[in-house]
Input
Amino acid sequence: MKNHKSKTELVYETLKKYIITGKWEPGERRNADEIANMLKVSRSPVIAASKLLETEGLLKILPQVGMEVPKLTEEGVEEIFYIRGALSGLATAHACQHLKQKQLKKLKDLAELMDWCVLKNDHEQFSKLNREFHYTIFRNCKLSHLVILLSKYWDSGNRYAHFFSSLPKIMVSSATNHHEILEALEKRDEKTARIIAEKDSVDFGLEASKFMKMTSTIVNANSGNKTI
Output
């Protein structure tokens, strides 16, 4: 963990990666001593990093216990993607007048690669390309505080990215949205770019929420049918 970054930053980035990638599963608990030993640091940067992650909704600090990865909920996914959608729409609209032809070309290439992922049903690669598509736009938004806030919600939302594998239709509609966003950006149409970018996030959140409710109902129904 030797780096020019502080130990707190390094611990923060490491734990964030564990949570977002699913290495630490929802509901999993850890304690500061365990993490400190694992990363070969003292407790102080672990505690500081966990407090930062708690402000982003990626960890829940449990007094006298340690910390817990928050469970995924229907209400949580809707809230995250409503907020993420609003921020994405605003950032996309603001970047509209700043994107150069080189960047528009990159967006076109990414959109076409995502079309290929849809055909191959490669949800993991689609998720990575989706992030790169939107961040290519966000990097040209001149509202730095907005981008910082958006990044937090984007990372929180990435905990739900695996739902692409269970929602092939939303992957198709998302790919369509990207082409529409690109078309609006090429026309410098801020209003349309903002509407479609917001819709892209919100639609995913609503579909993921419906899927979670449906699977929860099936699990509960199956549990109710069991005899002891």
Remarks:
- The radius of gyration is 19 Å.
